[in-house]
Write a structure and sequence with these properties.
The chain is α+β, with helices and mostly antiparallel strands. The chain folds into five domains: 60 residues, Arc Repressor Mutant, subunit A (Orthogonal Bundle); 63 residues, OB fold (Dihydrolipoamide Acetyltransferase, E2P) (Beta Barrel), CATH 2.40.50.690; 67 residues, OB fold (Dihydrolipoamide Acetyltransferase, E2P) (Beta Barrel), CATH 2.40.50; 300 residues, no CATH class; 85 residues, Beta Barrel (OB fold (Dihydrolipoamide Acetyltransferase, E2P)), CATH 2.40.50.140. Helices cover 30% and strands 28% of the residues. The chain is built from 17 helices and 35 strands. The strands form ten sheets. Strands 13-20-19-16-15-14-21 form a seven-stranded mixed beta sheet. A five-stranded mixed β-barrel has the order 3-4-5-7-6. Helix 2 crosses helix 3. It is globular and about 100 Å long. It catalyses: Exonucleolytic cleavage in the 3'- to 5'-direction to yield nucleoside 5'-phosphates.
Length: 732
């Protein structure tokens, strides 16, 4: 059926009182006469104008409007207006998250008034009749969340519509035929939202880019990036600028730095890593203590403020890690070459160097620019082999090269001693109230066409934790060094607020179904009981569900100049210093640290706070894109397993169905309540369950069920299951 854009002139006068009030309230500081209101309504016949005059007099008598001068009226505002962010629900209604209200304010679909998901809006609120909760009406759109959308184009003779991806978009976008940018019917496109006139059903836009055909791998990956406004290539001038940089190691520059090229230094990274942000150095001192250096790529040496390279890095703010590719923050000449701490190469680094004793107590510290030489490169698996076997032999199945070899004895000794020290530091952190998240990561084995041929889980082992502890140490000590100075200096902190009490209560309600209990007495007991639960749940069917729900309970970590500490790590001071190749805040931290080491005065706080906000926002978008790419790959993987039955755990329960996460591969899909035909199932919110009206059979959060793939939709990122039932209990 062809969609038509209605001008709606016959409906202009219906419900006229509300329409006039809406016009006057929207421009509540402006006065209008009847002719101006008629013009806004696009009516000019005498009958309509007379009705407007009559309604104005009625509203004046009710004191809902006032006459500011003869024949001119404006709304009487008895309402307090608020601002907030709109979160659309799937059925056209939404909720506004506003600092003025403890609970989200419900907005019915007829009061959305052309606002879209994520928009910053002005609204007024009134109590709802049921349960005294607030309902509201949006009166103004302050700022659109985004101007570009991804969708599928539908071509007609003289116009087109773009059907936007996602269930939070309740309208499609009208595109004049001269603005389709050579798109063909059914193409996935990036479309701008240019305007939305008051009397139009759909906003107007223009196709900015054709991304390809739906379902094709590159199309879908590029669509994910475009959805969040993330680039997938560098502008030619930025590449050109980066390629023209002098990346040689010069004697003149070495003379300005601490020369640590003769100190044993090595990297430990994932097998497939291409950019090596960090290296560790190790030396046993004459006094029996250990000097351990955390050496970080000196990105700020190459990425100078005020250059197009710096502007591009700032705009990106982070590298984006999708299932089949990395979209780097810096061009390859820097990220994989000049800045990467590759083996057997000299590199400029920014270092935190500590002297420690056998109890992992820090006796001295030093921060500054260095030049280092990496003697060896290890994958985590190789370092783990040294830790587990306590010897130097690396078997071929763990070796990066595929050949068995013996690591240098001095490197193996360094790894073993640093593992000891890392374990002490980790124990101390846990004792201080840090939360231990060892969440399982889902990874895919891909063939040459980026098709998923297998799923595996990545867990954190001792070698990963060794690196983690020393990176945490450097980040913490750099933040302390600046944060404790007086007078106070502007700095970039990574902060993490305490969890919200209501979210904790909701978590307790869910995990109690599995027999876990949390202690809310104080922040120390909260963290220790969370740690206990996270440990107890390891290896159980509900682990991923409990891990995920616990992470959602936590506040979001963010960047700011206002230090409130880091709850999850139990640190009073924390920053990001150790990954400047892939995170812009680390570049800012390097610059500020050097600025203060040089004795300069405090930097402008407002400028850095704005940069912190931008970095936090870009990190959030990047995380969403990463999640979408995993979801896409899971659906692609399940396409080839349509006739198989899987055991899964119920990971979510709603009135429209149950969400099930498959135990063997963590793929999550939905069983629609409409397809559960053996009974009439009703949602029990208190028990997180769907309960059969006749049979009393319930499907509860955390229970195991058997499912089969019903439908896979790569474009909409939907995975639908058919419910087979509960696993049979077999007596042996």
């Amino acid at each position: 059926m062809t969609k038509k854009r209605r001008k709606g002139s016959s409906n202009k006068i219906s419900n006229l009182t509300n329409t006039i009030l809406s016009i006057l309230k929207k421009d509540r500081n402006q006065s209008y006469n009847y002719k101006q209101i008629a013009a806004k309504l696009e009516v000019n016949d005498a009958s309509s104008r007379n009705q407007i005059i009559k309604k104005l007099q009625e509203l004046l008598a009710k004191k809902e409007i006032e006459e500011t001068e003869r024949g001119k009226f404006k709304a009487v505002v008895n309402t307090e207006y608020h601002t907030g962010i709109l979160d659309m629900a799937s059925k056209g209604s939404g909720y506004i998250i506003s600092p003025d209200f403890e609970e989200d304010v419900f907005i019915a679909s007829n009061n959305i008034n052309k606002a879209l998901n994520g928009d910053e809006v002005e609204f007024y609120a009134y109590k709802r009749r049921n349960r005294g909760k607030f309902e509201g009406e949006i009166t103004n759109i302050i700022k659109r969340a985004k101007s570009d959308y991804v969708g599928v184009i539908q071509l007609h003779d003289n116009y087109a519509f773009v059907v936007v991806n996602g269930n939070k978009m309740y309208t499609d976008i009208f595109v004049p035929i001269n603005k389709i940018n050579n798109a063909e019917n059914g193409d996935v496109v990036l479309v701008s939202l240019d305007s939305w006139d008051k009397d139009e059903d759909s906003p107007k836009g223009a196709v900015l880019k054709v991304l390809g055909k739906p379902g094709e791998h590159n199309t879908e990956i590029h669509a994910i990036l475009a959805e969040y406004g993330l680039p997938y290539e560098f502008p030619a001038e930025v590449e050109e600028y980066a390629n023209s940089l002098d990346t040689s190691i010069s004697e003149a520059e070495i003379a300005k730095r601490r020369d640590m090229r003769k100190t044993l230094t090595f990297t430990i990274d994932p097998k497939d890593a291409k950019d090596f942000d960090d290296a560790l150095s190790f030396e046993v001192l004459d006094n029996g203590m250990y000097e351990i250096g955390i050496h970080i790529a000196d990105v700020s040496h190459y990425v100078q403020e005020g250059t197009i390279l710096d502007d591009e890095a700032y705009e990106r703010a982070t590298s984006v890690y999708l299932v089949d590719r990395v979209v780097p923050m810096l061009p390859e000449v820097l990220s994989n070459n000049a800045c990467s701490l590759r083996p057997n190469e000299e590199k400029y680094t920014f270092s935190a160097v500590f002297q420690m004793n056998d109890k992992a107590e820090i006796k001295s510290q030093w921060f500054g620019r260095t030049v280092t030489y990496s003697d060896a490169r290890f994958a985590y698996e190789e370092a783990q082999s040294i830790i587990e076997t306590q010897n130097t032999h690396i078997p071929e199945e763990l070796s990066i090269t595929g050949n068995a070899y013996d690591a240098a004895q001095e490197v193996a000794d360094a790894v073993l001693k640093m593992d000891e020290l890392a374990k002490i530091m980790r124990r101390e952190r846990m004792k201080d109230g840090a939360i231990s998240f060892d969440k399982v990561e889902v990874k895919f084995n891909l063939d040459e066409q980026a098709n998923p041929i297998g799923v595996f889980f990545k867990t954190s082992q001792d070698a990963n934790k060794l690196i983690e502890e020393f990176m945490l140490l450097a980040n913490k000590k750099v933040a302390e060094y600046i944060g404790k100075q007086s007078p106070k200096k502007t700095f970039v902190y990574r902060v993490h607020d305490e969890p919200d009490a209501t979210k904790l209560a909701a978590l307790q309600s869910v995990v109690s179904k599995f027999g876990y209990k949390l202690d809310f007495k104080d922040s120390k007991t909260i963290s220790s009981s969370l740690n206990g639960m996270l440990k107890d749940v390891q290896g159980k069917a509900e682990q991923n569900l409990v891990d995920t729900l616990t992470i959602r309970t936590m506040s979001k970590a963010e960047y700011t100049t206002d230090n409130i500490g880091h709850y999850g790590l139990a640190f009073d001071y924390y920053t990001h210093f150790t990954s400047p190749i892939r995170r812009y805040p680390d570049v800012m931290v390097h610059r500020l640290l050097q600025h203060y080491l040089d004795g300069d005065k405090s930097a402008n706080e407002a400028i850095y706070e704005e940069k912190c906000n931008h970095s936090s926002n870009m990190e959030n978008l990047s995380t969403k894109a990463e999640r979408d790419s995993i979801k896409y790959m899971q659906i692609k993987f399940m396409e080839n397993h349509k006739n198989e039955e899987f055991v899964g755990v119920i990971s979510g329960v709603t009135d429209w169905g149950i969400y099930v996460e498959i135990v063997t591969n963590k793929c999550e899909g939905m069983v629609s309540v409409r397809d559960m035909n053996d009974d009439h199932y009703e949602f029990d919110a208190t028990e997180y369950a769907l309960v059969g009206k006749k049979s009393g059979v319930s499907y509860q959060l955390g229970e195991e069920v058997v499912v089969k793939v019903k439908n896979t939709d790569l474009v909409k990122k939907h995975l639908d299951f058919t419910l087979i039932g509960k696993p049979q209990i077999i007596e042996l």
